[in-house]
């Protein structure tokens, strides 16, 4: 008995329609980029498949064509598209939480319900004008929206990025950071609680971030305190404590400790109750990571006592960079010491102020 004849595509002037074993029809065509595209779904009848092909051909003729694979994303709301965008990336936990907060609190309110394809420069401008938050957070929200919609352009969901506000990703006037002199740094150290003085020395002379200092263990200090090994960083966000690798890929590093502060580091090690190599250098209650406020609060009080009320704990990194630069460190050495990847970031650290 002869088998059932195979059904082939009907000859058309443009595109093809095939009948599947299910009895439904698949439409395909070769686009302007010479890639064959299929409809995102099948059709119950050939007339429906022909209609889809006619629609695609009309887009090509009008020069408004984009690959059909992005159709589902063009109809997706910004909130849903941003959620997918975030799941496809692997930022640090704290950065992921920051992005999620910016989306939930700043971006989705006003733009989240709009389809991505309908977000216009006017809509972005109106959202930005009505965004009520401090300048830095406003710039961060705009930068995140710009990044998400840049991906939408790359995905061919939209033809161009509607985030076109000039300087919207800049925070405005930059706070001038004046690094401490060696005498000022030592005065700050003496005003800190004894258990945290070594932490300020490591931040001010070695350029460690506060999160990196919190994660230091006894094993991270070299023989005679000649060096400190940075391998982890602690961050706190939304009531959670997170431990991860340092902020940048260059953040895992070994930093030489200046000879004149090594005795203070060794004295701090001697005062620790726990001799375990994995014991924290600056533990909180019950040996856990020290809470953020338990180090920032005494730092603020100490800064006030040395008449530096505007000093922030992160400013100690700038002090460390400036002290190293005045000691003769090259830009490459500063990058390694501070854990920087980009040379431009490092160049912004040292201050022209004369360190005496």
> Looking across the biggest beta sheet, what order are the strands in?
1-2-3
Major sheet: size, sense and barrel closure? 3 strands, antiparallel
Kindly report the average pLDDT value. 84
Q: How much helicity do the residues have?
A: 40-55%
CATH-derived architecture of the largest domain = Orthogonal Bundle
CATH topology of the largest domain: hpI Integrase, Chain A
Round the Cα radius of gyration to an integer and report it.
29 Å
Strand portion, in percent? 5-15%
Give the beta-strand count: 7
Given as residue ranges, the uncertain stretches (5+ residues, pLDDT < 50) are 1-8, 343-356
What count of helical segments does DSSP give? 14
Tally of discrete structural domains: 3
Question: For the record, what is the CATH homologous superfamily label of the largest domain?
Answer: Intergrase catalytic core
Write the H/E string, N to C.
EEEHHHHHHHHHEEEEHHHHH
Alpha-beta classification: mainly alpha
- Determine the N-to-C terminus distance: 102 Å
Description:
This protein has 356 residues and is mainly alpha-helical. It has 3 domains: 16-62, no CATH class; 78-155, Tyrosine recombinase, N-terminal domain (DNA polymerase, domain 1, Orthogonal Bundle); 182-348, Intergrase catalytic core (hpI Integrase, Chain A, Orthogonal Bundle). It is 43% helix and 9% strand. It is built from 14 helices and 7 strands. The protein has helices at 46-61, 71-74, 78-87, 93-111, 121-130, 135-154, 182-191, 197-206, 210-214, 262-271, 292-305, 315-326, 331-338, 343-347; strands at residues 16-19, 25-30, 36-38, 227-230, 233-237, 240-244, 253-256. Strands 1-2-3 form a 3-stranded antiparallel beta sheet, covered by helices on one side. Strands 4-7 form a two-stranded antiparallel ribbon.
